[in-house]
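hey so i finaly got around to running the thing on PPIase cyclophilin-type domain-containing protein from Triparma retinervis. pasting the sequence first so u can double check i didnt mess up the copy paste, my clipboard has been acting weird all day
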Amino acid sequence: FGVPSLSVDADVRRKYRFPNTIPDDPPNHRSFERGTISYAGSGPKSRVADLFISYSDNPGLGKSPWEVPLGYVSEGMDVVESFHSYGDISAFNSKGPNQNKMRNRGEEYVEEEFPLMDRIIKCEVGQSVGGASKSSLGQGKGGIS
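ok and heres what it spat out for the 3d tokens, dont ask me to read them lol
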């Protein structure tokens, strides 16, 4: 999730278009276990705004600077697993969505090829304050609300 061309917010679409990338993070040597949240990347300095949630343990990930966990689903993984998707992206799944087509054609491509795909309409991440997350959506127990 997080492909900028699918955002309903025009400012978000403009801000996160290539070649604007998010700098790689220093390795934190955390494992990619079920529920890990990370930017999707394909090489050094390749991260834009695409994120993924790992549906299972992935010990092969986390060894490169563009593969750094930024959070974990602490509760509600059953909700994540109920999202209707078409599996991994086309690079790893021939029936999955093609990220370049999503970026170039946006919503039109998704509606035509993947009409049942669930979408996140809006997501806000709050700042961690004394171990608790604080955002305009309310307070959670840390990380992502």
